[in-house]
């Protein structure tokens, strides 16, 4: 590596490295220190003691049970839809694909409120008695993650080579035999990858579990929240965060390995969708059931927000200009919405700037073994936030960025920085594959004609990445707008975000407060859904790979 290339690489990497060092490594390191060095001396037994507590064992059991059950349900609902939406041609197919992408980016607290409205005593399914039960939590988690299965498995199904299946059919194999012996083995890496990612997201479903399960059916994330905010047992919270960090990192490593096996980088022709046949009727029926599963809670939420004392009314929306019954809030919901929008804008440009720099650093062509190793090491470092949940990030901020020279407790940038870190993996996953696909010879040709680095980026890179850049901005904005895990630790009472306001409203008694929570949930859901539908129109294929 020449001195000039080394200086350029270090200059590009310096900003992201400093940001992650201060706002990720330091908070996570502080969290590890709080758990392993509780009194200034190394004491791993303190972590073991926390993990042997009866309640903690129940929490671990709840987490594993909820995540495993919701993963199975997500696969059962998502696999037929993945086939129907990626292999069959029928009217409104692209619209349905866009609609089924929306649940993944809906705020978790909104999903929880929607199912609470559906399954509550006054809801359409209230007679089933599922409100506040483990079944409600599992349904909410599956609703949130089924789109991951559709995207990951559907993309693999769409690019599947059909010649082996056609050869098996020509040799006399029945459709069931072809599916069992040819299709499933080919899709297995994608299915297992999707299952591992869904399990991870379900285990980290903070807002859904907190809203639907409460403290009775706590998971690791909600227990960390309880130990930190209610019991002030920071050592126990740190111990659970350490366990979560290890488990999440292992799951992400498995998912990444399986994703590499499923997509080795070989260019394949996408199969043309075919018209449905009689044999596809059960698959189409299952897809319709999935649409009902996704649509009914949302429609119930909207209908509930438009009713006041059994009458159709916009009163709940007009009440958003106030602070609720018995002063449930310190600021009106409209003010919280304005703060959420400003915060999401800040988090979006932060994550875009950071993600673009990361993408440039890790995708530029290496000209020596040493340079390749440096870029690989930087790539691994930049992906570290994938291994930590939003709750752990917020907890780390809380216990480390509270003293000089980094006393940021009163800083207006603390919440958007945390949200930018949460959104960063989506931004990087969207931009990196596109940057990798740009032929470096085009940049070399532009440079040979006298173009400087900036002119080269504007004429070669920008025309290719502007759509993915807009898609990444949409993802970051939607994720930041609905982020609840880290924000629940960091938001101040006089500067709450909308998800925080919704959770506080459903925690205060009174019909007005609950109606305002429904109306605020609809506003937040509509905003994020609109952003994601615009992103879907950009047709960026790499988004589904996440």
UniProtKB/TrEMBL annotation:
UniProt topology in membrane: Multi-pass membrane protein
Domain spans labelled ABC transmembrane type-1: 60-255, 337-535
GO CC term (a single one): plasma membrane
Subcellular location(s) of the protein: Cell inner membrane; Cell membrane
Principal location listed in the UniProt entry: membrane
Protein's GO biological process: transmembrane transport
Transmembrane segments annotated in the record for this chain: 7-28, 64-83, 95-115, 135-154, 190-215, 235-258, 278-303, 347-364, 376-401, 413-435, 469-491, 511-535
Keywords of the record: Cell inner membrane, Cell membrane, Membrane, Transmembrane, Transmembrane helix, Transport
PANTHER family: INNER MEMBRANE ABC TRANSPORTER PERMEASE PROTEIN YDCV
Protein family according to the UniProt entry: Belongs to the binding-protein-dependent transport system permease family.
Protein's UniProt name: Thiamine transport system permease protein
């Amino acid at each position: 590596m020449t001195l000039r290339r080394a200086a350029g690489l270090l200059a590009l990497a310096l900003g992201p490295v400093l940001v992650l060092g201060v706002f990720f490594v330091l908070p996570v390191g502080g969290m590890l220190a709080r758990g392993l060095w509780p009194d200034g001396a190394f004491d791993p037994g303190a972590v073991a003691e926390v993990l042997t507590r009866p309640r903690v064992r129940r929490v671990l059991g709840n987490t594993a049970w909820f995540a495993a059950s919701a993963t199975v349900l997500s696969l059962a609902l998502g696999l037929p839809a993945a086939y129907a939406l990626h292999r069959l041609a029928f009217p409104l197919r692209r619209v349905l694909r866009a609609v089924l992408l929306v649940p993944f980016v809906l705020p978790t607290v909104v999903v929880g409120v929607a199912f609470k409205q559906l399954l509550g005593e006054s809801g359409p399914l209230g007679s089933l008695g599922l409100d506040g039960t483990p079944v409600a939590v599992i349904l909410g988690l599956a609703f949130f993650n089924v789109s991951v299965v559709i995207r990951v498995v559907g993309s693999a199904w769409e690019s599947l080579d059909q010649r082996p299946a056609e050869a098996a059919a020509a040799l006399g194999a029945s459709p069931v035999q072809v599916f069992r012996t040819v299709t499933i083995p080919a899709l297995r890496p994608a299915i297992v990858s999707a299952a591992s990612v869904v399990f991870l997201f379900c285990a980290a479903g903070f807002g859904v579990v907190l809203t639907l399960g409460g403290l009775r059916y706590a998971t690791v994330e909600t227990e960390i929240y309880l130990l930190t905010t209610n019991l002030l047992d920071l050592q126990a919270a740190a111990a659970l965060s350490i366990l979560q960090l290890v488990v999440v990192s292992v799951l992400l490593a498995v998912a990444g390995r399986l994703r590499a096996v499923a997509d080795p980088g070989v260019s394949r022709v996408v199969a043309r969708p075919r018209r449905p046949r009689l044999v596809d009727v059960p698959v189409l029926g299952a897809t319709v059931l999935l649409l009902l599963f996704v649509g009914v809670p949302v429609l119930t939420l909207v209908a509930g927000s438009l009713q006041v004392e059994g009458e159709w009314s916009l009163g709940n929306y007009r009440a958003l200009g106030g602070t609720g019954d018995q002063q449930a809030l310190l600021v009106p919901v409209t003010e919280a919405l304005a703060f959420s929008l400003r915060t999401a804008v800040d988090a979006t440009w932060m994550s875009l700037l950071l993600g673009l720099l990361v993408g440039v650093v890790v995708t530029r062509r290496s000209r020596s073994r040493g340079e390749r190793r440096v870029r690989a090491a930087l790539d691994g470092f930049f992906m570290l936030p994938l291994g930590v949940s939003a709750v752990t990030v917020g907890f780390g901020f809380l216990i480390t960025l509270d003293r000089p020279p980094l006393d940021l407790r009163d800083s207006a940038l603390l919440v958007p920085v945390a949200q930018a870190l949460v959104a960063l993996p989506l931004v990087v996953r969207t931009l990196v594959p596109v940057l990798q696909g740009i032929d470096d010879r085009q940049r070399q040709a532009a440079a040979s004609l006298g173009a400087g680095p900036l002119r080269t980026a504007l004429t070669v890179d920008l025309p290719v990445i502007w759509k993915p850049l807009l898609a990444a901005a949409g993802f970051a904005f939607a994720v930041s707008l609905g982020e609840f895990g880290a924000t629940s630790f960091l938001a101040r009472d006089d500067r709450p975000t909308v998800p925080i306001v919704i959770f506080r409203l459903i925690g205060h008694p009174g019909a007005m407060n609950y109606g305002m929570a429904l109306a605020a949930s609809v506003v937040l859901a509509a905003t994020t859904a609109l952003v994601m539908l615009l992103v879907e129109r950009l047709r960026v294929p790499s988004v589904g790979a996440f």
